[in-house]
Design brief:
With 267 residues, this protein is mainly β. It is built from no helices and 23 strands. The strands form six sheets. It has a four-stranded antiparallel β-sheet with strand order 6-5-4-23, with no helix packed on it. Bound molecules: calcium ion (3 copies).
Length: 267
């Protein structure tokens, strides 16, 4: 940058470039380096979690919960900047902040066939829960009361998603069905509508893979991951875990201690 007074600064919509405007000397674009601190992935099978922040090195390897019908969750539940895991089964929830101790245990929703979702619906930095069934969503900001209740999408075989698609700090929903993604920034209007991946047995993922604030999608099948930073091109492609019945999870993981196979101390 020449020694020229800057009269205005602007940020591009992708939060990747600052444009510095000057009097008479034109404008300069200044790239904002990626934090390199985006979401990692993990896998879960019957109470067993394996987490990685770099798509290969196992950062944490632990058991939580009884496995069986319990499904894995992940999120930053205490707004400390790192994600941790939880589990859900038929309306019952356990959340941790360190992948070991139970930070909260509660019931929300009628259980099956309602599915859990996790998001920071109010942009306060804390992720809370929601439930989805056949196009209908209930979201909570405190894991107790209903903050919003709405329908989005045709239901049926469509699955719920949650992400901050526009990077405004507030997460909103989306839906996925056989390779087709439909995303909303306000839980009502369609903001993005696209296809990614072959559908079939591939499962959708959502994360901020490059740490630029916005959430983008990925897909998972049998140990194989494809992640995109723009919902169009492939940013990374890798294998993690043995596939099979292991389920993918997403988070920017910390160094929670984890636990050995649980025998009831999660209650
Ligand atoms: Ca946290
Ligand atoms: Ca929140
Ligand atoms: Ca948003």
């Amino acid at each position: 940058m020449p020694n020229t007074a800057v009269v205005n600064l602007a940020l591009d919509t992708a939060n990747t470039t600052v444009v510095a405007f000057t009097h008479g000397r034109g404008a300069w674009s200044i790239g904002i380096p990626s934090t390199g601190n985006g979401d990692g992935v993990g896998i879960y099978n019957s109470g067993h979690f394996l987490l990685t922040n770099d798509h290969s090195t196992v950062l944490a390897n632990f058991w939580f919960g009884p496995g069986g019908a319990w499904k894995p969750l992940a999120g930053d539940f205490d707004a400390n900047g790192v994600a941790s895991i939880g589990i859900y089964n038929t309306g019952e929830w356990y959340l941790t902040n360190n992948n070991s101790a139970v930070a909260s245990h509660f019931y929300f929703g009628p259980g099956s066939p309602w599915q859990p979702i996790i998001g920071d619906w109010d942009g306060n930095g804390t992720r809370t829960i929601g439930i989805y069934n056949n196009g209908e969503f209930y979201l909570s900001n405190d894991n107790v009361t209903v903050a919003s209740h709405f329908w989005f999408g045709p239901g049926g075989t469509w699955q719920p998603l949650a992400g901050d698609w526009d990077g405004d700090g507030i997460m909103s929903v989306g839906i996925y069905n056989t390779g087709h993604f439909v995303l909303s920034n306000n839980n009502s209007a369609v903001a993005q509508n696209f296809w990614f991946g072959p559908g079939g047995t591939w499962q959708p993922l959502v994360g901020d893979w490059d740490g630029n604030i916005t959430s983008t999608i990925g897909i998972y099948n049998n140990g194989q991951f494809y992640l995109s930073n723009d919902n169009v091109t492939i940013a990374s492609h890798f294998w993690f875990g043995p596939g099979g019945t292991w389920l993918p999870i997403v988070g920017k993981w910390g160094l929670g201690a984890g636990s050995t196979p649980a025998t009831g101390n999660y209650r």
